[in-house]
Amino acid sequence: MLLTLASRKQRWTSPFKQLLLNSYIFNHFYSTTSNDITESQPSQSTPPPIQVLLTESTGRGVFATRKIGSGELIHTAQPFVCHPYFSSLHTVCYFCLKKLANGDNSGVNFCGDSCRKQAMGFCEVENQADWSAFDTHCRTRGLKYPLLVRRLACMVLSGVASSNSLDILQPAILSPQMIALMEEEFGLLRCALLDADLTGEKMAFLTKQWYIGVLARIRINAFRIELVGGSYEDLLLSASSSVNAEAAVGSAIYMLPSFYNHDCDPNVHILWIENVNARVKALRDIEEGEELRICYIDASMNYKARQTLLSEGFGFQCHCLRCLSYD
């Protein structure tokens, strides 16, 4: 089924609104520059050398505020919400998706006390409900994004997130057939929570419209988390646009990384070293004012395959320089 993006040609480009957008993003969502980050204790003191601008042709985009060198770590980002795949449920941390040496198949696992404490809020809500019908529905149909919606709903119910947290993200326009399928998922989610005696004002946000709106945003903004091999230092020095991934372990939604537009010959790349925390790295020298772009798909695919996947999965035809040359 074909997805189409909601109109992105918004002529909202006044300097004041640009300032508000960047202030909102950098004040609400964690990111650092490469000069401040260490593996053990990242700093948040210096903003990254980028800004989000609203353009007339491609909607929001990320642009360099200074020259960025090839291989430079531009910024990091923590997810707003993430969830492991069913296949990784007992082998990665339930909060940060870090691979575990010894997982427990009898329940969810955490890599340490810090992740366990951070997950305590939504886990307390999750543990009150019987998710067997919801999980069976998702497993048998190979669905992964409803798991992100469930976690977000539990985060809202526990008070650690707002129900409109993802409203800033671009949604997909969904076909009537897709909406009909989502209604069944929504019913299973809501029933599980109601059966757990979660009622009253806290549940007021959980409407069919909310569920479909959140899922529409997740469908075109979720990142597939692939933990890479190699050392952190080696990856920072590398200028390669592709790395060998051990395996995809889950999905996540980020705010700042979601504003990056696509290019089949990208100048930046997102890496996941050991957990769900993203690192955005320059693949080549980037000039001040140049737009930073990532590749949404496997860049090694041929022209026809790329166009088909971008059209069916993201709702647009790519007109980057590589595609214009039919490479």
UniProtKB/TrEMBL annotation:
Superkingdom of the organism of origin: Eukaryota
Stored Pfam families: SET
InterPro entries noted in UniProt: H3K4_H4K5_MeTrfase (IPR050869), SET_dom (IPR001214), SET_dom_sf (IPR046341)
CDD domains the record matches: SET_SMYD
Entries under SUPFAM superfamilies matching the protein: SET domain
One GO term describing the cellular component: nucleus
Domain SET: start-end pairs: 48-297
Protein name: SET domain-containing protein
Organism encoding this protein: Daucus carota subsp. sativus (Carrot)
